[in-house]
Specification:
The complex is a heterodimer of chains A (788) and B (255). Chain A is an alpha+beta fold. The longest helix of chain A is centred in the last third of the chain and has 41 residues, at 697-737. Helix content of chain B is 36%, strand content 27%. Chain B has helices at residues 47-54, 77-87, 103-113, 121-134, 150-162, 180-195, 207-210, 239-253, and strands at 3-16, 19-32, 36-40, 62-67, 70-71, 88-91, 168-172, 199-203, 215-220, 223-229. The chains are: A alpha+beta (788), B alpha/beta (255).
Chain lengths: 788, 255
């Protein structure tokens, strides 16, 4: 008998049970994939670095004609327990061509490091996470996403030109490179066969492009850093933690998806809780009858618990299997750059699914407690016992100016605030998730982030091939700027061109003496930049620093630090604190009069072009196209393109946003269908009565759909109000990790945030509600005769 | 007297689990304007089905139902709904109302929905209150439906059925769930409505209620076995006699 009742229940409420099952599947899927991914991502970089055999401290040197000076210093330093060195040759991506044209798309990441696979001192992995030990002659691997974003496919032949040597190599695929693999590093590694590398390295014309990558083992990174402060060949140095930070975007992207997953788990659980509670409450008659004929509470409870246990187990099993590809999909972008993994995926997945079943059963146990409260009188009096009496009507039709449809819908919503507020909460949460991602993506692609890149707004940005000559000391910054200005003048678009340089300068304060990246440009004024605290440096013996540098050295505004500029050490006064994402926030800014004009910068920003005639945006775009043709380079960018390229994450975040939008729409449609079907089941008598009284189908469908529209509109308004504060709450810590420790102003794309997404959600709600409400047509006016 | 409702060869068949169940078989009768007709018969004889098919709430399998000259089977669902809203009133055994509305709002809802009723919402509210006043429930206007008794609720249902001044009221066992006093009050109200010109057709098991009707149709196994003409009800003094005659007739019918 017990199973017969159960069977009938499952058949009778097929749709509700299927939707419930779907939510269990979703919950199990999100739980299993998310928990696995949390473990993978949280320990992700450590696991990756361990597999790669990374060290404690890293240097990248540009030795040029000076030669290797660092090895000797490291050999002498007692804090160094050992180090490994890889030889490299620098090549500008401008000199990597395919069919005579630049192979890489516009990118500020324009420098590649070539090396031989035989010289590898850490493990590099292919897409299957196998260690790359050999590279076939005539082929090469590339780290980072540049090949992918430039549409270079395996098998494509590229010409690499360095000095007087040009070699044609075939692209063999992407390697996972723990040191340079993150796009945040800005450089890409080209790994090739030893013979191919020798063709470059053995040619005297390439000697100016030599460098080294050092993997230093030490227990005292600070001592190592101080010991090599004066080495002029170092272009980059960083501790283990700094390299880990370069994967922050991958981890953040994966982490954001985890936040989404957790939100989705919560949504699924809220809906499950509601549905279970709702179905039990609506079955007062059956429960009352069972009680009236003497079935005990625990047996009635067991009936529901068995049903939900069945649904939970089936859902969890399906959810577990779906979670495997879903989890991989979530981490796809991160796993392309990193060797990710954890050793207990199956166990964790299974445990997560068991936890979901447990939580569902806990809900059921809680919900079925209501069974105790229901009595046989509920069955006899249509549930209208004293306990169920409550005020239902809140608005008065007679006093309302709303049309009947609107009035009934609004009245229904305000009369059952609990069930509609749950929906409002879920819709708001979904909408907010999308909005927050959109705000972050838009900010990462807007000029609002420009100050964090430590440059100011210019009409165009141009990464010239000749920048390599500046870094190599062949040309000065001024010479490069003048040649670009001449080009522009010849083309009838005179402009001022300047180049922001990055210089390694030793900074000493108290016990700390380290190399720090100094930003400097002789053509701009320090006062052109944004400062969080204090003022811009006023003369050559003043400087500004980021709060991270201040923290590192322990100095504050008004303190004096010893800085060695162009071989001369002087005391510099700290006048201002600014924010920067450059070098993960570890930079200082020197006054324009500082004697750096003749110093070779470690690296530079693209040349910044400011036209003399102050043209409008359209003219700038036209000029951009003309210049792209003239210089045969798509590395002429407007401010948005430059920012997008520099942060290199707006697209990834936008992709996450789109995924979240799709999942949100799916969740919302499912909720609407579930709720509307519940309402129709619950209100069958009212629908029949309305029809019997002469109300047309379309009126009832409109009334039902309109309730959801109200909820969606309220959610839209709530989301609009909460959008900015929550974006700050979520994104400020992320930008802080990237260097913007004091937050920033977010780019709100008003039409997108306040119109597009709410409209998409509203459309999903209307479609879901309308098509489900069509089911009210199956209720006939004559059903009013069978009202229970 | 013109006929407001004409039924010819009405059949209604349900097919359940591939088994044909002929609920109504070749029923023909008519109801004149201003008439008050009761439909009686044993349980399961098809009384309620007859009421719902002739009022356009349910489809007929064959035959014709003409209301005020309109053939119901030829009307579209929306036209039928329009007809029910403006020209018909309904009273059910279960006094069902929308639980999120007050009594008054439930009563005036059909008026607010009616496009034919051009009165303002205030006028509709006034009419609702007037009807409630007539039925002695005006003090309950702002009450929820779960705050009133069954008799009061059924009177509110009568008010709702009257709000658009329908030509005919269909009542399905309107006193079935009421005690004797409430039942009398409701029946008297229907008689008053009928006296004012509204045609009434009701299904009932109660001979005391049926005795107040002009005519009684006795239905058995989906067919009208016979009908009994009681003539116009002229007051309480004649009720006992009408009830006795009707009971005798019903006894003969096998009731």
């Amino acid at each position: 008998m017990f199973f017969r009742i159960l069977k009938k229940d499952i058949r009778r409420k097929k749709t509700m049970n299927i939707i419930l099952l779907l939510f269990v599947v979703l919950s199990a899927m999100f739980a299993s994939s998310s928990v696995n991914n949390i473990i993978t991502v949280v320990g992700g970089t450590d696991y990756y670095f361990e597999q790669a055999g990374m060290a404690d401290y890293y240097f990248i040197t540009n030795e040029g004609k000076i030669g290797d000076t660092l090895s000797e210093k490291l050999n002498k330093e007692p804090a160094v327990t050992g180090y490994r060195r890889e030889n490299t040759l620098y090549i500008s991506s401008d000199y990597i061509t395919r069919d005579g044209k630049n192979a890489f798309k516009a990118s500020t990441n324009s420098l590649c490091l070539m090396m031989s696979v035989d010289d590898a001192k850490i493990n590099y992995f292919d897409k299957n996470n196998d260690v790359v030990r050999t590279v076939d002659e005539g082929t090469f691997y590339l780290s980072g996403s540049f090949a992918e974003s430039s549409g270079i496919e395996v098998g494509d032949k590229l010409d690499l030109k360095l000095g007087d040597v040009t070699v044609t190599l075939e692209y063999a695929g992407r390697i996972k490179d723990a040191l340079l693999g993150s796009d945040f590093m800005g450089n890409s590694r080209i790994m090739m066969n030893a013979k191919d590398y020798a063709r470059f390295a053995d040619d005297p014309s390439t000697s100016g492009y030599r460098g080294g990558l050092f993997y230093v083992d030490t227990d005292d990174a600070k001592a190592v850093e101080q010991a090599v402060t004066d080495d002029l060949t170092i272009t980059f140095d960083g501790a283990h933690s700094v390299i880990k930070m370069t994967y922050i975007l991958e981890v953040i992207t994966a982490g954001m998806l985890l936040v989404v997953s957790i939100a989705l788990i919560l949504i699924s659980f809220v809906i499950l809780r509601f549905t279970i509670g709702f179905t039990i409450t609506e079955e007062f008659r059956e429960i009352g009858v069972m009680k009236a004929i003497g079935i005990k509470n625990r047996h009635i409870r067991a009936l529901y618990l068995v049903k939900y246990l069945g649904i939970a187990v089936i859902g969890a099993v399906i959810g577990y299997f779906v979670s495997i590809p879903f989890g991989e999909l979530l981490l796809r972008s991160a796993s392309k750059a990193m060797y990710l993994g954890n050793d207990s995926t199956v166990l964790i997945g299974a445990l997560s699914c068991i936890a979901v079943v447990g939580i569902i059963m806990l809900f059921c146990w809680g919900c079925t407690r209501r069974i105790k409260k229901l009595s046989p009188i509920d069955a006899v009096r249509n549930g209208q016992t004293g306990e169920r009496f409550r005020k239902h009507s809140f608005l008065k039709l007679s006093r309302s100016k709303l049309p009947a449809t609107g009035f009934l819908a609004v009245n229904d919503v305000v009369s059952a605030p609990k069930q509609y507020s749950i929906m409002t909460l879920v819709f708001t949460l979904c909408l907010l998730l999308v909005m927050i991602f959109a705000n972050i993506a838009n900010t990462l692609a807007s000029d609002k982030i420009l100050f964090l890149l430590s440059v100011h707004n210019s009409d165009l940005y141009y990464s010239s091939k000749d920048e390599m000559d500046v870094w190599g000391g062949v040309k000065t910054v001024d010479e490069l700027c003048e040649s670009i200005e001449k080009d522009l003048s010849d083309l009838g678009m005179p402009a001022n061109v300047h180049l922001e340089g990055q210089y390694k300068v030793p900074v000493e304060f108290g016990d700390v003496r380290q190399n720090v990246t100094a930003l400097w440009c002789g053509e701009t004024k320090c006062s052109d930049y944004v400062y969080e605290l204090g003022t811009a440096p006023q003369n050559e013996l003043e400087f500004a620093a980021t709060s991270l540098i201040c923290e590192k050295y322990g100095f504050d505004i008004g303190d004096k630090a010893k800085i060695t500029v162009n071989g001369e050490t002087k005391e510099y006064l700290l006048t201002g604190i600014f924010q920067s994402m450059n070098q993960l926030g570890q930079v200082i800014r020197l006054h324009e009069d500082a004697p750096l004009a003749e110093v070779v910068p470690g690296t530079t920003y693209p040349a910044q072009i400011d036209f003399d005639d102050d043209p409008d945006a359209k003219t700038i775009e036209n000029r951009k196209e003309i210049l792209r043709k003239h210089w045969d380079s798509d590395k002429v960018q407007n401010v948005t393109e430059f920012v997008k390229d520099s942060t290199n994450s707006a697209d990834a975040i936008a992709a996450v946003k789109n995924l979240v939008l799709i999942i949100s729409v799916m969740i919302i449609v499912m909720i609407v269908v579930l709720m509307e079907r519940s309402f129709i089941a619950k209100e069958k008598a009212e629908i029949a009565l309305m029809k019997a009284l002469g109300n047309k189908d379309k009126f009832i469908i409109r009334q039902h759909a309109f309730r959801f529209v109200i909820v969606a509109v309220v959610s839209g308004v709530l989301s609009a109000v909460l959008c900015l504060p929550l974006t700050k709450l979520v994104a400020d810590p992320i930008f802080a990790m990237m260097g913007a420790s004091d937050g920033l102003g977010y780019e709100l794309n008003i039409p997108e945030i306040f119109a597009l997404y709410p409209v998409i959600i509203l459309a999903a709600v209307i479609a879901g509600a309308f098509f489900t409400a069509l089911y009210t047509r199956t209720v006939k006016a004559s059903d009013a005769a069978n009202i229970e | 007297m013109n006929n407001i409702l004409e039924i010819k060869d009405l059949c209604k068949t349900y097919i359940v689990n591939k088994r044909q169940n002929n609920v109504l078989r070749n029923i023909s009768f008519s109801v004149g304007e201003g008439e008050m007709v009761a439909v009686m018969g044993p349980s399961g004889s098809g009384k309620s089905t007859l009421l719902y098919t002739v009022s356009g709430m349910d489809n007929v399998t064959s035959g014709s139902v003409s209301f005020c000259g309109s053939e119901l089977s030829k009307l579209k669902p929306d036209e039928l709904a329009e007809l029910r809203l403006n020209e018909m009133g309904f009273i059910f055994q279960q006094m069902y109302m929308l639980k999120n509305l007050t009594l008054l709002d439930n009563i005036i809802l059909p008026a607010v929905r009616s496009e034919k009723n051009k009165a303002s919402r205030a006028e509709k509210q006034a009419k609702g209150l007037e009807l409630m006043n007539k039925l002695g429930i005006n003090e309950l206007a702002d009450n929820d439906i779960n705050e009133v008794s069954g008799g009061q609720l059924q009177r509110a249902c009568i008010c709702r059925s009257m709000i658009n001044s329908p030509k005919m009221i269909f009542a399905d066992e309107p006193t079935g769930a009421l005690n004797r006093t409430s039942s009398e009050e409701v029946t008297d109200e229907l008689c008053r409505l009928n006296a004012s010109g509204t045609t009434v057709m009701m299904v009932t098991h109660d001979t005391r209620v049926a005795a107040k009707c002009d005519r009684v149709l006795f239905i058995v196994d989906g067919s009208i076995k016979e009908e009994y003409n009681l003539g116009k009800y002229s007051g309480a003094s004649t009720l006992r006699d009408r009830e006795r005659k009707l009971s005798d007739w019903l006894m003969n019918m096998g009731w």
